[in-house]
Amino acid sequence: MSESEISAAEGAFWAIPPHTGIVYWEMLSLLHTQLRPRRYLEIGTENGASLKQAKCASIAIDPKFGTLDRETLEKPACLLFQMTSDTFFESYSPTTLLNGPLDIVFLDGMHLYEFLLRDFIHVERHCRRNSVVLLHDCLPPDANVARRGIHDTTLRAQSLYPNWWAGDVWKAALIIRKLRPELKMYAFDAPPTGLVAITNLDPASNILERAYYDAVAEYRDLTLGTFGTDAYLKLFEPRKFSDDFNDIAELFWL
To answer: Does 116 reside within a domain?
Structure first.
């Protein structure tokens, strides 16, 4: 990072006020309860905090699963694929495995924007227009948490969260919003690093796939500081999540 980038990052260090809403897995649980999906897929399971919220037929993808308890696996079907998401989509079709399109998707895989962008491209093909895709970690509380390199300590001393790392997946949200303005994107104040929900999908779209390499190159050197706090919050100002059915129905339906 250059001196000018460091200066800019310091000047806009608190990109987003610390989140005070319900934690992300509780929000995921409420969405499952209210929307009652029939098919669910997640990338990045670890020990199953997010997978546990799904009560429907589910697919979980992770290169190395942690310990999953019985409650996590109690579903009509629960398919575990211990591999990278790229490898999964090269070999399998979620639509075929679950006998229909996905209703809710939770993306929490590799914390680098090019990986999240590919994951979104892959899953959208297996969704319906009104399916809901959730992007984790795209509202990091500060520039240190939003750094690309997990071992980069440039801004660590200034951070209230010196040991947190969300990576630069926030850039995938920027790319998707820029290239796919017809999508409905909602940012939620969900600790620790926010959730961005996307709906009004188009499974037939190839816009992101065609623009993938150019977009990755364009955003490679962008930092949260150089993009600017005001500009980011204008696009992704987090809202509190309401568990009221009428409030949810204004945004999502299955």
So the answer is: yes
